[in-house]
């Protein structure tokens, strides 16, 4: 009898252990009026919690607005509202040693908005490919830590490459640079205009000196600019590739023709970086195989790098691969189990006539998010974890309307990645395990009183109060015609 009591007590302890530990979070619903655009966060005013900056898209009237909200310990209050100047082309957020800066780019100038008087001051100047203000206020990610010192640097695309400025470790000091790294953007010519897509920037330690080098794929070549004591060399070295690519523009496409009408295989460059944790860059290629009408498969091949004669050389054949029928698109890449190696999460869907008819009848489509964990320099044939997610779309335009989201973050503060799943009246947190399972079987729920519908792409996971635990920011559209837009914040306490 005593053995049975001990067994029941042990079972109860396991069931009520860390998997069901309470997460100390509070939720807030903020009325942001007509602001329906981009949401940024940053410590602009020296507060303990990041400010939220919400933008309103101007549309045809070009009435572009911004509003900043500050947290007073109890609620979020409007701290500043103003028109976005007509010459602003895009915005971005710069994390700095003293306090963060909201960047506003106008033609040939990167300005920052000073909360002391809300005036714009030029940070750096250089020509770029961005010259015409759009109707909305977009974010363009020009802030990026390119040299691996945990400080945000600036990379601005021009018509013949990138301008690069490094942030000095001294707060408010002058920027180091710029240097120009040559990398010609791709161009699409139209009857009366042309559009440009800057080359993707790839980071790897090419020469093994412990510093990030920057690489660019130029059609048939991979060019590497090595870091030096001051910044980056302006002369490149060429890195040999084990396979030919048609592009490095990552898109998800559906094959609707037959093999006689198009290439049976389309190979694109997905990434270059250290995936197996040996401090040497690896190459990832995506192969889309089209066998016929709605018959296709997607494969990710991983070519591991090795150090040879002071440089990086990729293996001639892939060491591991991830493959499935249908369409796969990258959902997230990261070290989910904190073992120094990169794991993969893919959004996967199999396309068929039945699924298309079901989608047209219901106005919704289901994806599976599949997680693959790297072990022993390889990914498994089948995903370690699979989670479903469903989106609603417009039957008229085909655009996404809303849908439940799925995301990852560290809400427990233990350094492991947790899985976040919204349900009615709560957000379920599946805590990270650090092993092949990735996440615990049973979640801990954070109660929230939020609308059911989230704007597509309207979820941000970030540590707003710098306590080592991630927080959640969500955008909600109005549920009725006269209702305002709202933002939901789930904040640790």
Q: Can you put this structure into words, describing what you see?
A:
By secondary structure, the chain is mainly beta. It is built from 2 helices and 37 strands. The strands form 10 sheets. A 5-stranded antiparallel β-sheet has the order 26-27-28-29-30, covered by helices on one side.
Uncertain residue ranges: 1-20, 252-261
Q: How many DSSP-defined strands?
A: 37
Average pLDDT, all residues: 85
Q: Could you tell me the radius of gyration in angstroms?
A: 24 Å
Strand order in the sheet with the most strands? 26-27-28-29-30
Secondary-structure map with pairings?
Blueprint: H1 2-15, E1 25-33, E2 39-42, E3 51-56, E4 65-71, E5 76-83, E6 90-94, E7 101-106, E8 109-114, E9 119-125, E10 143-144, E11 153-158, E12 161-166, E13 176-182, E14 186-189, E15 194-197, E16 202-204, E17 213-218, E18 221-225, E19 237-238, E20 265-273, E21 282-292, E22 295-303, E23 305-308, E24 311-314, E25 320-325, E26 327-334, E27 343-349, H2 353-362, E28 364-372, E29 385-393, E30 400-403, E31 407-409, E32 418-423, E33 426-430, E34 444-447, E35 459-462, E36 471-476, E37 485-492
Antiparallel strand pairs: 1-37, 2-3, 3-4, 4-5, 6-7, 7-8, 8-9, 10-11, 11-12, 12-13, 14-15, 16-17, 17-18, 18-19, 20-21, 21-22, 22-25, 23-24, 26-27, 27-28, 28-29, 29-30, 31-32, 32-33, 33-34, 35-36, 36-37
């Amino acid at each position: 009898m005593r053995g049975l009591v001990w067994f029941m007590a042990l079972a109860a302890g396991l069931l009520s252990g860390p998997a069901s530990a309470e997460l100390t979070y509070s939720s807030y619903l903020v009325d942001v009026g007509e602001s329906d655009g981009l949401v940024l966060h940053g410590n602009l005013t020296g507060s303990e919690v990041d400010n939220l900056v919400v933008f309103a898209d101007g549309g045809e009237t070009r009435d572009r607005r911004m509003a900043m909200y500050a947290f007073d310990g109890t609620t979020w209050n409007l701290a500043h509202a103003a028109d976005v100047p007509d010459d602003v082309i895009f915005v971005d957020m710069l994390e700095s040693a003293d306090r963060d800066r909201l960047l506003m780019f106008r033609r040939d100038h990167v300005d920052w908005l000073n909360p002391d008087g809300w005036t714009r001051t030029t940070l750096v100047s250089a020509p770029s490919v961005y010259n015409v203000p759009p109707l909305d206020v977009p974010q363009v990610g020009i802030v990026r830590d390119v040299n691996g010192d945990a400080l945000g640097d600036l990379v601005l695309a021009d018509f013949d490459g990138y301008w690069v400025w490094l942030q000095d470790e001294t707060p408010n000091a002058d920027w180091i640079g710029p240097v120009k790294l040559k990398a010609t953007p791709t161009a699409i010519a139209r009857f009366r205009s042309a559009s440009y897509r800057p080359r993707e920037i790839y980071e790897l330690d090419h020469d093994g000196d412990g510093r990030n080098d920057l690489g660019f794929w130029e059609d048939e070549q991979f060019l590497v600019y090595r870091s030096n004591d001051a910044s980056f060399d302006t002369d490149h070295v060429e890195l040999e590739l084990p396979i030919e690519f048609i592009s490095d523009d990552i898109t998800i496409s559906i094959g609707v023709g037959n093999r006689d009408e198009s290439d049976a295989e389309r190979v694109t460059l997905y990434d270059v970086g250290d995936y197996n944790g040996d401090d040497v860059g690896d190459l990832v290629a995506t192969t889309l195989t089209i066998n016929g009408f709605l018959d296709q498969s997607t494969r990710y091949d991983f070519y591991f790098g090795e150090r040879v004669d002071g440089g990086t050389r990729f293996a001639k054949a892939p060491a591991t691969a991830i493959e499935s029928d249908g369409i796969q698109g990258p959902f997230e890449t990261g070290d989910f189990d904190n073992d120094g190696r990169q794991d993969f999460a893919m959004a996967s869907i199999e396309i068929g006539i039945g699924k298309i008819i079901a989608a047209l009848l219901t106005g919704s489509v289901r994806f599976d998010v599949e997680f693959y964990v790297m072990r022993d320099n390889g990914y498994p044939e089948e995903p370690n974890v699979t989670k479903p997610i469903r989106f609603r779309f417009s039957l008229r335009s085909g655009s996404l309307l809303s849908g439940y989201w799925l995301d990852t973050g560290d809400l427990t503060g233990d350094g492991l990645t947790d899985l976040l799943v919204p349900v009615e009246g709560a957000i379920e947190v599946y805590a990270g395990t650090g092993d092949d399972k990735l996440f615990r079987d049973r979640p801990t729920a954070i109660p929230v009183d939020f609308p059911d519908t989230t704007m597509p792409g309207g979820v941000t996971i970030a540590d707003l109060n710098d306590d080592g635990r991630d927080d959640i920011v969500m955008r909600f559209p109005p549920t009725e015609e006269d209702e305002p837009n709202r933002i939901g914040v789930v904040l640790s306490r």
